[in-house]
Amino acid sequence: MATTEGSLVRVHYCGTLEDGSEFDSSAGRDPLEFTLGAGQVIPGFDAAVAGLDLGESVTVTIATEDAYGEHVEAAVHKVQADAFPSEPVVGGIAEVGTPDGRTMNARITSIVDGEVTLDFNHPLAGQALTFEIELVEIVEPDAVEPETDTPEA
Fold first, then answer.
1. Is-above-0.90 flag for pTM?
2. Tens digit of each residue's pLDDT, the chain (153 residues)
3. Are 135 and 11 in contact (CB under 8 A)?
4. Is the dihedral of CA 31, 35, 41, 44 positive or negative?
5. Which range marks the domain in which residue 51 is found?
6. How far is Cα 134 from Cα 54, in angstroms, rounded to an integer?
7. Whole-angstrom distance, CA of residue 24 vs CA of residue 115
8. Is 4 helix (H, G, I), strand (E, B) or coil?
């Protein structure tokens, strides 16, 4: 049975960058579960799983535009270090409030002469991603237990 849009699937995967370094894997964890076509994973990953048969594996390289998009220089900002409540650390994450009251995370990429560079891009933006994907389960709609608030008798 092949997957189709709307299928609830479970996959094991290993993601690598162009240099071969691994950035994520489901090894040692439960498989990743998502609904095909629901926008729960990056578009290229979704497309790679579509049409797979149970037990089938595929290796796919996902172009930047079908992964996390291009690295946008306008999403990189510099602020003074004294604007932070504690000492900023390169590689750390800064929570930044927006005018509409939301919070966004930014990576601290450098600190030079009291000026902190914040990068709001996704850490994998601007990179093609290669995934080894194995479809380990297609969950039948009647096999998914409905969530209820009623305790069992």
1. no
2. 788 889 999 999 999 999 999 999 999 999 999 999 999 999 999 999 999 999 999 999 999 999 999 999 999 999 999 999 899 999 999 998 888 999 999 999 999 999 999 999 999 999 999 999 999 999 876 554 545 454 454
3. yes
4. positive
5. 8-69+124-141
6. 8
7. 31
8. coil
Q: Is 58 helix (H, G, I), strand (E, B) or coil?
A: strand
Backbone angles phi, psi at 49, to 5 degrees: -85, -30
User: Do 102 and 129 fall within a single domain?
Assistant: no
- What six digits make up the tokens of 99? 């005018």
Neighbours of 83 (CB within 10 A): 10
Q: What Å distances lie between residue 106 and 10, 28, 95, 119, 127, CA to CA?
A: 31, 29, 7, 5, 18
Residue 104's CATH number = 2.40.10.330
Which tokens hold the place of 136? 């380990």
